[in-house]
Amino acid sequence: MKEIIKKILEFSDPYRALQEKVRINDNTISFNDERVYFKKPILIAVGKASIPMAEFFRQRISLKAEIVITPKGTSKGGDVIEAGHPLPDENSIKAGKKVLDLLLNEDYDLVIFAISGGASALLEYSDIPIEELKMINKLLVTSGIGIDKINIVRKHLSKIKGGKIIEYVKDRAPVISFIVSDVPGNDISSIGSGLTSIDKSTINDALMLLRKVGLENYAKYLTETPKSFSRTIINYLILDNMEVLKKLSNYLGNSLILTSEVRGEAKDVGVFMASIYNSSENYGIPLKRPYYLLLGGEPEVTIKGKTGKGGRNGEVCLSFLKYVKKSGKFELLSFATDGIDGNSDYAGCVISSNTNINEDEINDALETHNSYGLLERYESTIRTGYTYTNVNNIYVLNAP
Ligand SMILES: Nc1ncnc2c1ncn2[C@@H]1O[C@H](COP(=O)(O)OP(=O)(O)O)[C@@H](O)[C@H]1O
Ligand SMILES: O=C(O)[C@@H](CO)OP(=O)(O)O
Fold this sequence. Notes:
About 35% of the residues lie in helices and about 20% in strands. With about 400 residues, it is an alpha/beta fold. The structure holds adenosine-5'-diphosphate and 2-phosphoglyceric acid. Adenosine-5'-diphosphate (ADP) binds next to helix 11. Adenosine-5'-diphosphate binds near residues 141 and 315. This is Glycerate 2-kinase.
């Protein structure tokens, strides 16, 4: 699977996607039938892909000013803010203040945003004290509710998310956002909490979710998100999970893309994938060997109490192994394109028909959310380091 991982990362590269889809010459940006003219552009790049995306614009445009915000420990040097992820920290608030200061005080005629997953935690401005914000986010991301719902809460508790940042943009300057999606279904208003998107969700939706996770005492901080804008805002999706799956399918041949929108509890996703393999073994339906089955998306892991070392992909692999029919050869790659799965420093795992882990060990690892504690003993883990992108997780099942 090494070559396949290399290809996934190549196809997930945001710089390459911008190169393919965006043209810049003579003070004009052209993309997707749009042409935007500028003299004094500024750039705000935030998310896991911010560094390569900022690099693309910096190499082609003389920017009046720029702010780049990346997760802690991932700066490659230069004037970059490193902030907390998956929980916001003091630097996320500093970044928020710096961005607002830029929007309110710089002289510009175009705002370019480069937005990717992680932006919700990395950039914040809120009346809620930071320690409480951390606690709220921790509760939300481990509650098992999907990212779209988590971000409904974040948008209404924040002073900049869910399109609110647009209120700070000066002189009717247009705004263009180039977006890399790590949200199944690519809802622009959810990716990075939809910084530059109008928002369909309401305070009431946020309130119901706050109640669901026991945080209703924060209701006083909820404010409504904009439902329309009175200036030109263009949100342009440059890369998503399906695009990577399609390129991978072309590269591999003999493959079926099932979905780029996997959701639901990670261990149930493993069971579901095993059921497809088993059915193929038993009936040749839906696939006959040799084949690659490709899926993408973002399963959730509901965590209660203390955990071991694990992640979504670790749990997909283990539950697949538990339910898969032990006949024939197979290999399953379960891979986080950002290089980090859950609280581990692994990007994911590869298991095969030769991985003999007994069922008791699997049950124990799933129960204690210690998938990587177990998988590393069977040399089934993958480490890539931080990848400077995120188009969610990719699952490749190979039945040769
Ligand atoms: N020990 C663990 N085992 C399984 N999943 C975990 C563990 N710790 C955290 N997670 C899950 O990992 C998710 C966050 O990690 P990650 O996959 O890196 O997401 P993101 O791409 O959103 O940053 C959370 O949804 C959480 O439920
Ligand atoms: O920033 C966010 O809101 C989410 C989705 O875009 O990203 P991540 O899950 O990587 O934190």
